[in-house]
Specification:
This protein is α/β, with parallel strands linked by helices. It has helices spanning 3-20, 32-40, 60-73, 106-120, 127-141, 179-182, 186-194, 210-222, 262-277, 285-294, 309-312, 327-343, 360-364, 388-397, 408-416, 432-442; strands spanning 51-55, 78-81, 93-95, 102-103, 146-150, 168-171, 203-205, 227-229, 234-239, 242-247, 250-254, 302-303, 318-322, 348-352, 373-376, 401-404, 425-429. It has 16 helices and 17 strands. Helix 1 (3-20) packs parallel to helix 4.
């Protein structure tokens, strides 16, 4: 790292700390503060190129990654706003450039946040609201062709839900998560997500449960928004390891996604359907292929192939990292592990750390048929992490053998002392906060 970056980072961290003190709650859903802040900034959200707004429970980031890679392969400049970040706050803001975008630099991000801080004038606002306002400011100041905007939490009252006429609204699979904010039924959660739908704007929807789909269909009808739903308007199949996409305009035979897991075929299909649903996006076959193959999204069934972790674990072992943290996230990760097991059989060990408000039993149950060995670890430097003994109790109730460890390094070194006929496959999972910690100590932060 160069000297200027070294000097900039502490002041950026200090600024984030200052902004965090403006509101006693980390999450406080509502749009009144956001509208007031954007008005003071001169409404940068009204000065953006076409916006694709993405809500859902799982798969938002991966779908956005396919959209970005495909649009960039078509020669377009793409701004992207995502959350949460894994290692550095800069990851939330990607600025479009000719030839491919880049994370915002420290100086540019600090300037945008300081401007937001100035106009906010010390009033109560959550960090997410201030970050989102800074994103709109950055995106309005830098020319681009498309903005990809990921919902932070829910949709209806999320700070991103201030775009009056996006080019498209995308809804990824909806499942149970964040029940303390969004309600404790699938119907209520789906209603929060579907509230991003705008009048007359195309809605592209992943495969859903019957309950969630009924809510989304009703909202689309209410808003007179054309609905393009998976398995109705468009279809994705896996044939001979390739992605075969079809809709009323025809069929595309594409290479398999670079991101691992059967669910990534569905996420890639959702991205394709989105770009084909908006007439102004003219994407050719070559760009779709390049985007599907080239998309990157860290901590989603990511194989760790370099860095500090490898020497700590058993020699010859595979180390995988996945930020899944709810029952559905556990299901798709377990399915991906099942595919790996069919290809090359190895004993599986799961190293897990979770947040206190997550359903540990529902998450870990997905792995009960794949492994009996769980190592429970804390999540360092994180408020509201689940105590290791509580996580261990959940695993034991599923009949799993559980060992606590004080951290990732200790867990891997303990595994290295065991005798294996075949080097194990190790999955580190349970939280994006844990995934960020792993990437940081491994020396491989997202770029």
């Amino acid at each position: 790292m160069n000297a200027s970056a070294d000097n900039a980072k502490p002041s950026l961290d200090a600024l984030i700390g200052r902004l965090s003190a403006l509101h006693q709650k980390r999450i406080d859903l509502g749009l009144e503060r956001m509208h007031r802040l954007l008005e003071r900034l001169g409404h940068p959200e009204r000065k953006l190129p076409p916006v694709i707004h993405i809500a859902g429970t799982n798969g938002k980031g991966s779908t956005l990654a396919y959209l970005r890679a495909t649009l960039e392969a078509a020669g377009l400049r793409v701004h992207a706003y995502t959350s949460p970040y894994l290692v550095r706050i800069n990851e939330c803001f990607r600025l479009g450039r000719v030839g491919g975008g880049a994370l915002v630099g420290d100086d540019e991000l600090r300037a945008a946040l300081e401007e937001v801080e100035r106009v906010n004038a010390g009033e109560a606002a959550t960090v997410f609201e201030l970050k989102t306002a800074a994103a709109f400011l950055l995106f309005a100041q830098n020319p681009a062709d498309v903005v990809l905007l990921e919902v932070g939490l829910g949709g209806r009252l999320d700070s991103t839900n201030v775009i009056d006429a996006p080019a498209a609204c995308v809804i990824t699979p909806v499942s149970m998560d964040h029940m303390d904010f969004l309600g404790d039924t699938l119907t209520s959660i789906a209603a929060e997500k579907a509230a991003i739908i705008k009048r007359g704007v195309p809605v592209i929807c992943a495969e859903q449960t019957g309950e969630a789909m009924a809510v989304i269909e009703a909202q689309a009808k209410r808003m007179r928004a054309p609905l393009f739903a998976a398995n109705e308007s468009w279809h994705v199949n896996v044939e001979h390891g390739r992605l075969v996409y079809s809709d009323e305009r025809g069929l595309m035979d594409l290479a398999a996604p670079r991101l691992f897991g059967r669910h990534q075929f569905d996420n890639a299909g959702l991205a394709i359907a989105t770009l084909r649903a908006v007439p102004s996006f003219r994407i050719n076959h070559a760009a779709f292929e390049a985007g599907i193959v080239g998309a990157e999204w860290p901590a989603r069934m990511q194989r760790i192939t370099t860095g500090a972790l490898l020497p700590w674990g058993p020699q010859g072992s595979e180390i995988w990292l996945d930020g899944g943290h709810n029952a559905e996230g556990g299901r798709v990760a377990a399915a991906a592990l099942g595919d790996l097991e069919e290809r090359v059989s190895r004993p599986l060990v799961v190293i897990a750390g979770m947040m206190a408000n997550k359903d540990a039993l529902g998450f870990l149950a997905n792995f009960a048929g794949l492994t009996r060995h769980i190592i429970a670890v804390p999540i360092p430097d994180t408020e509201n992490a689940m105590p290791v003994d509580r996580l261990a109790d959940a695993a034991r109730s599923l009949g799993m053998r559980v060992e606590p460890a004080p951290g990732i390094e200790a867990a891997l070194r303990a595994l290295a002392k065991l005798a294996y006929e075949v080097p194990p496959r190790i999955l580190i999972t349970g939280s994006l906060y844990l995934a960020g910690h792993v990437l940081a100590i491994n020396g491989t932060p997202p770029a």
